[in-house]
């Protein structure tokens, strides 16, 4: 039985819808923990989506290419410096005789280094359609199904540089570190590299993408199609009994909403 | 605490004194530097018993100060030395805020917060910078310690070797010689004080 109402949009209109959906999604916040080589790492981040090109693919796939995620990250690294601990014994002639000081033991602490960082990543993904009635409103959502490509760009290299700079600043504030600074830098530099940073950054960005949902359309199940015309004509209400969505190829691919009232 | 201040003996400092004459030095340990006229509630008294000068020459004895549930304590609490020996007090890891040694031997007062004679104060410098120091008790004694970063071209072993070398500042009365010393990070300056009116070695910035 044919539907009572059919609405269709082509890929051009779908791109416009995508822009509106990205704005409506706003800024997302995520947090988590991981590791950077042997170093413990925790992070909090915020991200928002922009751009992307929609390609509609029957029967129900919306492919978005070049979707950009702009993110700001606060990364906290934990570094145990106890391997630098040193022991000093000094003897010196004084007017009162030769004097050997009690041994001085210098213990280096575990430090936390916070690295602020902002960048963007580009991804391509396939979205499926999810139609649902929730709290009296029909929603048509595009829900991510799979990531076909994730490009972090130069972020890993830049983050590696930012981490190095933050660690250097943190080390210089530690008393007595000047003596063993080169040792500390050599150890920390060897502890992790670009691959480790990429391994940490990828899951952080992916956390924003996991379960990503754009709302394409929403409509109250019961809505007014004609206002009241007093004194004799009441408002005309329509009830959307069922809504279906799919991609149909009819000359050109279109996102089609079919509604039964 | 890593501040330069002889009024508070911390883990990177040491206070020492040469006991030149026989007698008994009874002393207490306190947490905070207070005026010499203040009567501390010293619930524990430690002693250094100085005997006649030994034949074998001068020795250095070490007293470790610890902090526990009952406050500060010295180990050994009772020490027997020979005239001419040096006794050095230093803190272990349990001492978080430092300590002060104050007591009397006959009519003579010995106070690590007011250095007079045959006393030594040491300080290991952990951060580069210029440290203007002065006497917090107002004698006019002053000086400067310039702490430099190690030479970037030096090896790790060379740097660690430098740490085992001390630099002496001889204080006589209210004069320091040399008044200005230059060291590298991690090195220790040793102030040897004699015939002084009860002085401190205090970073001038702490007094502003």
The share of residues in extended strands of chain A comes to over 45%
Secondary structure class of chain A reads: alpha+beta
Strand content of chain B: over 45%
Question: Mean pLDDT of chain A, nearest integer?
Answer: 89
Helix content of chain A: 10-25%
Distance between the termini of chain B: 18 Å
Q: What's the total number of strands of chain B?
A: 17
How would you explain this protein's 3D organization?
The complex is a heterodimer of chains A (261) and B (208). In chain A, strands 2, 3, 4, 5, 10, 11 and 12 form a 7-stranded antiparallel sheet that branches. In chain A, strands 1-16-15 form a 3-stranded antiparallel sheet. In chain A, strands 6-9 form a two-stranded antiparallel sheet. The two termini of chain A are 13 Å apart. Chain A contains 4 helices and 16 strands. Chain A has one domain. The longest helix of chain A has 18 residues, at 155-172. In chain A, a hairpin with a 2-residue loop joins strand 7 and strand 8 (97-100). Chain A has 261 residues and is of the alpha+beta class. Chain B has 208 residues and is mainly β. Chain B folds into 2 domains: 1-113, no CATH class; 114-208, no CATH class. An 8-stranded mixed sheet of chain B has the order 5-4-7-1-10-16-13-14, with no helix packed on it. In chain B, strands 6-3-2-8-9 form a 5-stranded mixed sheet, with no helix packed on it. In chain B, strand 8 and strand 9 (108-111) form a beta hairpin. The radius of gyration of chain B is 17 Å and the shape is globular. The interface between A and B is medium-sized, with 29 and 41 residues.
